[in-house]
UniProtKB/TrEMBL annotation:
It comes from the Bacteria. Residues 56-468 form the Peptidase S9A N-terminal domain. SUPFAM superfamilies: alpha/beta-Hydrolases, Peptidase/esterase 'gauge' domain. GO terms for molecular function: serine-type endopeptidase activity. This is prolyl oligopeptidase. Keywords: Hydrolase, Protease, Serine protease, Signal. Pfam families: Peptidase_S9, Peptidase_S9_N. It catalyses: Hydrolysis of Pro-|-Xaa >> Ala-|-Xaa in oligopeptides. Its EC number is 3.4.21.26. Belongs to the peptidase S9A family. Transmembrane segments: none annotated. InterPro entries: AB_hydrolase_fold, Pept_S9_AS, Pept_S9A_N, Peptidase_S9_cat, Peptidase_S9A, Prolyl_oligopep/macrocyclase.
């Protein structure tokens, strides 16, 4: 049995999913002289760097706020209204400056060509099985969106179940979620347009390929789960937003509904809500045997959640039963793994920061025993347990050992059976399935190895290759290693370093350092075209594992939250200093990049140590730490950040908020901010205001630009063409700053 993300994890990923994936998504001409690395820069690159930029004038307004006795100016508040003509004019003016700059770079076109060539390879999603059919996604290389395929057996020619590329001309409508009915006949699917988090759900008959009339609107942060009788599914939604507030208004009071096929959404049955707790959200998953739906209750992006049991009737349908609380203390993370008879197995970090499995023996009437009677099935390990599933009567537990995956198989009795052999140091994901399935699938990847798909026999533990992509990236010419860095307070953290074999440690290598550090999300080594392209350009790619993530369990995560958030910045700075000390690079050749919470990381670190970096690219970052909670789902991040509404929290937020800590009269590196005009997760006002303040400061001649993508959001569902253009521009901007010759 496989449940979806726990409530806390789902909201954590609502901030960062696309960038967690990105950190996972060198020819001789790219090499530079060891003695004079900048000397090979083309005349156009030198001219671009030397000519001071003229930025659009950004109006300042008289706006100040009193935060617990401290007056804080906010002169660019008007940029928060992304619908105003003035803001739209500002966006056009900024993009015009950025476009002229990017077009003048000799590195732009060759970098885009190289990125396109490396992106153009067959990509597969991890297969899953439902109703006697296999389902998986595939992209032939440069398709705007991946296509969902299905087949009765792995040897059959697959058929298209749904092709999102047919839903829009420009590829900006993406498949945001799928749920297959238990008989494999019906597909409920969510679609999102222009990168927005808002989803519309529809239902397709897989036998005819036609959509049914059913349409579900205003879904966000929710999937769907069918009742076994195939008559309907559970989903969660918000009330329709007020006119003009769809992309900025705060999202509160999510409700869980049951939709019956053939009826209008207005007739959907309300299953769960909480009128007293506006931050409560809901999700429901039906167990393998179809007797029960388990309701997850989340209250933000933190790990702590509640669970309720919802009995289904004898025919596998929903007859209006009331939820039965299982645990509502919100004192830890509780993730259902499998229901085996009346025995419910949970993954939790209750009294186990690195995770363990619990066994709960439910009554025949679904009565819940006292928590004191719940027993440990698999105890806490020295490694952090990051996921668990039940397949073939076995428990498959994924752990992280210094940010690299290891998988252990346990029997139903909790006894260790074997370790699953993986191809090497890297990231494995998948392992979904049902308690009675005989097989499961997983992906494996590293910084130098594109993701390959393996089949696992659940009873024997044997694996076999299912799909391996062929790419233009010659992995045998590159290498990856794991090193360890000591942070400011003595904490030891891993970094993954990848580059062409035979690298000279002479301090002159162009180096790109990526980080995230937040929301309990592990950063593990995985292939992405950005890293591959950078390495082909002659660069060193480094992934830093920072506190705030989930690589070492709950304690590691908490060490990078709230008043301890500075630890994350210290870790990232330490990684940069280590690369310089160990002669990989020097500050003038060191670039940093991160998205979402990682964009906050880059913004904060540039302000604290502008001398350590030569270029910085914060993507869709949380830059205004005093007002983030006022927009869309921003309130859910308070569990990691705190909130300026509280006097104590304000004191640490104001100290690192990127918007409020820009240093005047300090020489800054080259900075290019990126965002999307339809980002309703981290609203673009964060990037707008930060860029305006950065351009207004006296911080040297290096460019301070913003690249604003239209018809794009936080990152999820972005069409291939926009991905290539944006990420190639990021690498070309860094290469131009470093004077690299890209061919």
């Amino acid at each position: 049995m496989t449940f979806r993300l726990s409530p806390g994890a789902a909201l954590a990923l609502s901030l960062c999913a696309s960038f967690a994936v990105q950190a996972q998504s060198q020819s001789s001409a790219a090499s530079q002289s060891a003695s004079q690395p900048e000397a090979a820069a083309s005349s156009a690159a030198v001219a671009t760097a030397a000519a001071p930029l003229t930025y659009p004038a950004t109006r300042k307004v008289e706006q100040s706020d009193n935060y617990h006795g401290t007056i804080v100016q906010d002169p660019y508040r008007w940029l928060e209204d992304d619908n105003s003509p003035e803001t739209k004019a500002w966006v056009m003016a900024q993009n015009a400056v950025t476009d002229r700059f990017l077009q003048s770079m000799p590195q732009r076109l060759p970098t885009r060509k190289l990125y396109t060539d490396l992106y153009n390879f067959e990509k597969f999603g991890v297969p899953f099985k439902e109703g006697g059919r296999y389902f998986w996604t595939r992209n032939d290389g440069l398709q705007q969106q991946s296509v969902l395929y299905t087949a009765k057996s792995l040897k059959d020619t697959p058929q298209i179940a749904l092709d999102p590329n047919t839903l829009s001309k420009d590829g900006t409508v993406a498949l945001s979620g799928t749920a297959i009915s238990h008989d494999g006949r019906l597909l409920a699917y969510g679609i999102a347009g222009a990168g927005s988090d808002w989803q519309t759900w529809k239902v397709r008959d897989l036998q005819t390929g036609q959509d049914l009339p059913d349409t579900i609107e205003w879904v966000k942060f929710s999937s769907a789960s069918w009742t076994p009788d195939g008559k309907g599914f559970f989903y969660a939604r918000y009330d329709a937003p007020k006119t003009g507030e769809a992309l900025t208004g705060a999202n509160y009071y999510q409700k869980l509904y049951y939709h019956r096929l053939g009826t209008p959404q207005s007739d959907d049955v309300l299953v769960a809500e909480n009128k007293e707790e506006k931050q409560w959200g809901f999700g429901a998953d039906v167990t393998d045997d179809g007797r029960l739906a388990i309701i997850n209750i989340w209250t933000g992006s933190g790990r702590k959640n509640g669970l309720m049991l919802l009995p289904l009737d004898a025919q596998g349908g929903y007859a209006g039963a009331k939820p039965v609380p299982l645990t509502m203390a919100f004192d830890a993370e509780y993730v259902p793994v499998v229901l085996d008879g009346q025995r419910l197995i949970l993954k939790t970090d209750k009294d186990a920061p690195r995770g363990r499995l619990l066994e709960v023996k439910l009554g025949k009437d679904w009565s819940v025993p006292e928590a004191s009677t719940w027993t440990t099935l698999v105890p806490e390990s020295k490694e952090a347990m990051v996921s668990a599933s039940g397949v073939g009567g076995r428990l498959l537990l994924s752990y992280l050992a210094d940010a690299s995956t290891l998988v252990r198989e346990y029997g139903a009795d909790g006894k260790h059976v074997r370790d699953i052999r993986l191809p090497g140091i890297g990231t494995a994901a998948g392992f979904s399935g049902k308690w009675k399935d005989s097989e499961t699938f997983f992906s494996f990847t590293s910084l130098t190895s594109p993701g390959e798909i393996h089949r696992l026999d659940a009873k024997t533990g044997k694996t076999e290759l299912f799909k391996r992509p062929t790419t233009a990236f010659q992995a045998d010419q590159f290498e990856m290693k794991r090193a360890f860095v000591t942070s400011k307070d003595g904490t030891r953290l891993p970094v993954f370093i990848a580059h062409r074999k035979g690298l000279k440690l002479d301090g002159n290598n162009p180096t790109l350092l990526y980080g995230y550090g937040g929301f309990n999300v592990p950063m593990t080594p995985g292939y992405n075209v950005t890293a591959a392209t950078w390495m082909k350009m002659g660069g060193v790619y480094v992934l830093a594992v920072l506190r705030g993530g989930g690589e070492y369990g709950a304690s590691w995560h908490e060490a990078g939250t709230k008043e301890r958030k500075q630890n994350v910045f210290d870790d990232f700075i330490a990684a940069g200093e280590w690369l310089v000390k160990n002669q990989y690079t020097r500050p003038q050749r060191l670039a940093i990049n991160g998205g979402s919470n990682g964009g906050l990381l880059v913004g904060a670190v540039v302000n604290q140590r502008p001398d350590l970096f030569g270029a910085a690219v914060p993507q869709v970052g949380v830059m205004d730490m005093l007002r983030f909670q006022k927009f869309t789902i921003g309130w859910a991040w308070v569990s990691d950040y705190g909130t300026s509404d509280k006097p104590e929290d304000f004191q640490w937020l104001i100290k690192y908020s990127p918007l409020h800590t820009i240093q005047n009269n300090k020489r800054y590196p080259a900075v290019m901010v990126t965002t999307g005009d339809h980002d309703d997760r981290v609203v673009p006002a964060h990037s707008f205001k930060y860029t305006a303040a950065l351009q207004a400061a006296n911080n040297g001649p290096a460019p301070k630009l913003i690249r604003i993508e239209t018809q794009a959001g936080h990152g999820a569902g972005k069409p291939t063409s926009k991905i290539i253009e944006e990420r190639a521009d990021i690498l070309a901007f860094i290469a131009n700053t470093f004077g690299m010759d890209v061919r």
